[in-house]
Amino acid sequence: MTQVTLKRRDARLDALIEKDPKLQHLFDHVGDLTIEISWDMFPFLVYTIIGQQLSVKVVQTLYARLLSACQNTLTPERLLGLSKDTLRSLGLSMRKAEYLHALALAADSGMLEKDTLDTFEKPELFAHFQEIRGIGPWSVDMVLMFVFDDMDHFSKKDLGLIHGYNRFFNRDMHPDDIEKDAMNWRPYRSIVAHYLWHVHDSK
User: Fold this and answer.
1) Can you list the alpha helix ranges (DSSP code H) found in 81-130?
2) Is residue 9 left, alpha or beta, with left meaning phi > 0 and alpha meaning psi from -120 to 50?
3) What 3-state DSSP class applies to 118?
4) N or C end of the chain: smaller count of CB under 10 Å?
């Protein structure tokens, strides 16, 4: 993965403030923000499946255990070499163990090849990824933002983003309404999302 620091005086933040003045308080409050993007596809999807409905700290612990069990190199072959019972012994549910095996088999079949994925438009990517058991719209949202480095995406299905928005702006808005508000942030919706995640994670 790659770490990128968004500086408070980044021109993109100033452009966002011009479109939506309330964002100035958010950016001033957080200041410079370091984010992690450009993940490798397979490890990121493993991390995403593990992370479904779990806190960041728990996910990091489980992912570290899995990485260690794969001798610190997470590949489809090494993951498939771990039985579902072994995955459960690491703290994963049986359903997530099944999802991880399905992902590894999909990777082995070539479904995650970059040359193939680069030919798809965004709607096609959603359809393609959701053919893999355990991958839903939220997971694809995360792939777009953290693997494809899409700077103009927002996930109304991410509870952290919804909580971060409502908490910071002292509102109680429905995800659909927040998504509509996020349209004001184009073409840098992902940047605002990273700031909102920071607010959520710092609770």
Assistant:
1) 84-89, 94-108, 114-117, 122-129
2) alpha
3) coil
4) C
In this predicted model, what pLDDT tens digit does every residue of 149-166 receive, in sequence order? 999 999 999 999 999 999
Beta bridge partners, 37, equal 2
The per-residue pLDDT of the chain, averaged, comes to 95
> Is residue 161 within 8 Å of residue 193, measured between CB atoms?
yes
Please give the helix or strand (H or E) that residue 18 lies within, else none: helix 11-19
Query: What does pTM read for this prediction?
Result: 0.91
Instruction: Return the pLDDT at 203.
Output: 67
Specify whether the CB–CB gap between 17 and 26 falls below 8 A.
no
- Give the up-direction half-sphere exposure of residue 22: CA atoms within 13 A in the CB hemisphere: 12
C-alpha 188/C-alpha 152 separation (Å) is: 5
Q: What's the pLDDT tens digit per position in 114-163?
A: 888 989 999 999 999 999 999 999 999 999 999 999 999 999 999 999 99
Q: Which residue has the tokens 């049986």?
A: 94
Q: Is 4 helix (H, G, I), strand (E, B) or coil?
A: strand
| CB contact at 8 A, 158 and 144 | no
pLDDT at 55: 83
Judged against a pLDDT cut of 70, whether residue 15 lies above it is answered with yes
User: Could you give the CA distance from residue 107 to residue 166 in angstroms, rounded to a whole number?
Assistant: 37
The per-residue b/e assignment along 111-127, b for 16 or more CB within 10 angstroms, e otherwise, is: bbeeeebeeeeeeebbe
